[in-house]
């Protein structure tokens, strides 16, 4: 069953804070605050494009802190979706909000309107980083919010940012490990981008803040992704969505924005995993100038890398004449097999979990 989100963007509506990195109007791709009729029109237009059979559809309120909006307006928005829930055209509602705008009374009300998923803009679980970023809450607030969200039976999403002021590789990894203990159902990982005309932009121009590079961000997110994967927590987004708003000249002042950031992270993991498998293979068997790699077809682009970058790097590293690629449906997702060129089946395999445990 394929999952679809119908996005309703609510730009910075209701949030009383101005976090140093935030220009929500640009990130949300809209300046217009939707009314009830807008919402119904958006829903109808999206439903026309979604195949009814084998589809799981959620209505997602994104872009602002939903539970910080005036309660009457929240209710109006939620009421606008009810007819689609009753007709089972939409299975549930997803919202995003801040950890400090969650309490039991809010959760009871959201539950009554059919909200099933709550994504929290956590950003970090390091108190100094939260303070430096102007978040106005601490890690205890996050933990309390996550706990009661799970207690009330909601699906929990956690949004994390790396490279905020005061953050580091070690602190980001610490945040990932602590986030695992909160038992989220899904995670989004975002490298911090310097958006023009934000406080962070001023800090950058005054040389009080140095953003991460793309390579540094990939290295950190690679380790965080593996932490979540081995704990069976799905990472549903790596990097900001490369919409036209962010591609517009002058919107981004600095930072590790890349339209294919998530794919780069996945390719780097596959390169490291394949390198470990080659080492293991050559230790157990004799070295060969030509090897055959077996991979599930859905993973081949991640394994090979852009313009065969991973293959080129590993051929040079191991002084190989060729690396043959065999697409094999019998190989599990995120598993790589290896063998000699004249063998149709792999002699060894390395799964993602085995790779993480051995790394």
UniProtKB/TrEMBL annotation:
GO terms for cellular component: cytoplasm. One of its GO terms (biological process) is tRNA wobble base 5-methoxycarbonylmethyl-2-thiouridinylation. Its cofactor is [4Fe-4S] cluster. One of its GO terms (molecular function) is metal ion binding. Keywords: 4Fe-4S, Iron, Iron-sulfur, Metal-binding, S-adenosyl-L-methionine. Transmembrane segments: none annotated. InterPro entries: ELP3, Elp3/MiaA/NifB-like_rSAM, Radical_SAM_C, rSAM, rSAM_horseshoe, rSAM_sf. The keyword Iron applies. PANTHER family: ELONGATOR COMPLEX PROTEIN 3, HISTONE ACETYLTRANSFERASE-RELATED. This is Radical SAM domain protein.
């Amino acid at each position: 069953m394929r999952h679809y989100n119908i996005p309703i963007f609510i730009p910075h509506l209701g949030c009383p804070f101005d976090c140093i990195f935030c220009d929500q109007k640009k990130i949300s791709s809209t300046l217009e605050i939707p009314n009830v009729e807008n919402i119904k029109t958006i829903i109808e237009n999206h439903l026309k494009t979604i195949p009814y059979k084998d589809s799981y559809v959620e209505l997602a309120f994104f872009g602002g802190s939903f539970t910080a909006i005036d309660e009457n307006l929240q209710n109006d928005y939620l009421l606008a979706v009810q007819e689609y829930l009753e007709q089972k055209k939409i299975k549930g509602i997803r919202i995003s909000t801040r950890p400090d705008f969650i309490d039991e009374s809010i959760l009871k009300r959201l539950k009554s309107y059919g909200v099933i998923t709550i994504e929290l803009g956590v950003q970090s679980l390091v108190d100094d980083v939260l303070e430096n970023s102007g978040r106005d809450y601490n890690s205890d607030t996050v933990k309390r919010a996550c706990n009661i969200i799970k207690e009330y039976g909601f699906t929990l999403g956690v949004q994390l940012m790396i490279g905020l002021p005061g953050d580091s590789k070690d602190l980001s990894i610490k945040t990932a490990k602590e986030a695992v203990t909160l038992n989220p159902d899904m995670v989004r990982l975002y490298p911090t981008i310097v958006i023009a005309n934000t406080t962070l932009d001023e800090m950058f121009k005054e040389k009080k803040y140095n953003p991460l590079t793309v390579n540094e961000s990939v290295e950190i997110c690679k380790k965080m992704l593996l932490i979540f994967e081995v704990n069976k927590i799905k990472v549903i987004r790596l990097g900001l969505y490369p919409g036209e708003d962010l591609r517009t000249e002058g919107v981004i002042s600095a930072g590790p924005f890349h339209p294919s950031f998530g794919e780069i992270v996945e390719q780097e993991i596959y390169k490291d995993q394949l390198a470990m498998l080659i080492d293991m293979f050559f230790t157990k068997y004799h070295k060969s100038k030509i090897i055959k790699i077996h991979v599930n077809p859905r993973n081949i682009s991640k394994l090979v890398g852009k313009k065969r970058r991973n293959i080129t790097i590993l051929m040079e590293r191991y002084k190989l004449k060729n690396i043959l690629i065999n697409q094999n449906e019998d190989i599990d997702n995120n598993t790589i097999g290896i063998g000699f060129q004249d063998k149709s089946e792999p002699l060894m395999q390395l799964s993602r979990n085995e790779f993480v445990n051995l790394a």
